[in-house]
Amino acid sequence: MAQVPYIAAPSVPTINTFLNHDFRISSWLLTKDHKRIAILFMLSITLFFIIGGAAAALMRINLAAPNGWLVRSETYNKLFTAHGVIMVWFFLIPSIPTVLGNFLLPLMIGARDLAFPRLNLASWYLFITGGIITLAALVLGGVDTGWTFYTPYSSSFSNTYVILTVFGIFISGFSSILTGLNFIVTVHQLRCPGLTWFRLPLFVWGLYATSIILVLATPVLAMTLALVGIERIWHMGIFDATHGGDPLLFQHMFWFYSHPAVYIMILPAMAVESELITCFSRKAPFGYGFIAFSSIAIAVLGFLVWAHHMFVAGISVYSGLVFSFLSMIVAVPSAIKVFNWTATLYKGSIALQTPMLYALGFIGLFTIGGLTGVMLATLGIDMHVHDTYFIIAHFHYIMVGGSVMAYLGGIHFWWPKITGRMYSDWWGRISAIIIFMGFNLTFFPQFILGYLGMPRRYHTYPPDFQFWNILSSAGASILAFGYLLPLIYLPISLRYGARAGKNPWRAAGLEWTTQSPPIEINFETIPIVTGPAYDYPRVLTETQSGQS
Amino acid sequence: MARVEYLNPPYQDLDQQSHSAELGMWVFLATEVLFFGVLFTCYAMLRMRWPAAFRHGSEDLNLWMGGINTAVLLTSSTFMALAVRAARAGDSRWIITHLAITAALGMVFLGLKATEYSIEYREHLIPGLNFANLSPEDQGKPASQQNARPEQERLFMIFYFVMTGFHAVHMLVGIGVIVVLIILTGRGAYGSGYHSPVEIAGLYWHFVDIVWVFLYPALYLLRQS
Fold first, then answer.
1. How far away is chain A from the Cα of B35, in angstroms, using its nearest Cα?
2. DSSP code for A498
3. Above pLDDT 90, what percent of chain A?
4. For residue A128, how many C-alpha atoms fall within 13 Å in the half-sphere facing its CB?
5. Residues of chain A with C-beta less than 8 angstroms from the C-beta of B49
6. ipTM score of the complex?
7. Cα B73 from chain centroid (whole Å)
């Protein structure tokens, strides 16, 4: 697998890049460069990933034995809340859009920056402010409501730091909104000459669909959490039945955001996937239009399925039927994507380099997550496994098996572009395989546990379940080791990696026509696009000479 | 020459910049619709559950002050529209005049709103502060003549204060923006053909106005007689 044309390190003179034109701290903290802001986001969400992962590790260690030997139930409640809140709002939702999206969107459409550079920086500050407030709540004593903040427990009974946490999420929500707004305007207004909508890379379509959800769903969460805060401070009864309010109303409002939020996490992952599969198959995607429009379809349909989280909450059987049906419909565009990626592989020249291993892992894990999703959309099965580990396994297959795999795949794919250096492909492939195996060993037993009836969110369980729990905990340790590896070899590559050159993967796309790492203004002259995206025959001829 | 200095990176020309600014504002307003949408939905759901209590709440509001405020706000929107027209014509003097009238009417609205809040305070209508099942003047009366407030009127008043409160915050932001625009126009910023900031401030102001157009009937007008 050594066909990557490395360029020998010493032969390249010092080049001017967005990284080395100014080294002052203020040049980072006050930067309006989308590439630097992407790196600020990358560092912050990695930190949050480690904190959220540590909470999960403690839970898995505790669950290795049935008697809750490590933590008390109160602590356990705070652990799974911290894990959920941090991973959802401070890692997964910002992950691909704010890191890869921020870095790549202008490069991919031949622009010098996002439409509103100052707003982009504001978005990072809002994110980090919200993050610090939430972490402060964690340090002061934590929250025990679960990441869902169900009322009336969160509004009337829990005596933990609900208001502070909710406030942190409220603030970081505006970061999501501003990022989405920025992306939408950028895609509409800043495409370079000749780059029509149907010449856009599929990554851009995915980000555009994500941005629609960010802009339309996040305000609903913000206002709903504001109402929870108001209710808690002044003891009002909007979501409390004893005062005439309605707890189900909260669930409707919460899931009206939080189900589309699942698509905020998976749509960008699908977007990355489309880039990786085409590049390492050396082929244009099968059915470009279908992949592009299925992203939009998912964004739209995703708004119509929220009540499938509430089948056992007391909604009427008729709305249950409607939401069950709609939830199955939303599986159609997702399936279209999976079929198209698979068809793209057919007769492609497949290169099994690190990003491709992540991409193939994504297809397998996302398919399992998606199909169990269709199972859960069926009313009867959902009644049976509601609030069990089956649910946990299902959404981790989507959110970790899907989104995190794609995020890591994307990081490995664009790392040479972001840093200008190649990492060790051998270590990369090893870590991709370890993560894939560790992930399956962690979460597949949870499907079985859930099917057998083990409920979620308990720190103890009957001894009969111990076998599967030990498997799951063992898998988690392998998974953690797998995640640790990129944290070691990627930084090492910054110093010792070979220079990457413009286009180490021989990939199509405007971002590969500029230098690595790019100059501060991305392109010396704004490019002009004359052909379709993914024109691999042309790209391969052009990069044949070894000039990359 | 005057036009070039308004061009900010990453834009290639002023048209692109203006279109981006306008699209950005429209997208932001879409966000705002969903933001207020939560409140309207929750309000509608709970109003359907407790129709009598919510109607009693509507009747406790000051219909006249709400009505006058509606007229004040609609008039302010007219002047905002005139300011945008003046900006398109490049007439700084009229931009400033119309914007000043808009902001002044906005202040009148907020003043009346504050007066209303203080009346409601005296009527013991503020949940979490002094909400009581009897208004002060009813307290001295014999039980048969009292017009007792239903228990769930509290819910109505919560929505009243949260919705008009968030709306008032949006008004304050709008007035702040207008003041900045007046200062910038005074320095000659929008007299020479480039006027996107006035245009998008106008969009925002009209949106805040429209929110009130829905708030007023939903809160004040759903009452008997």
1. 5
2. P
3. 90
4. 15
5. 244, 246
6. 0.93
7. 8
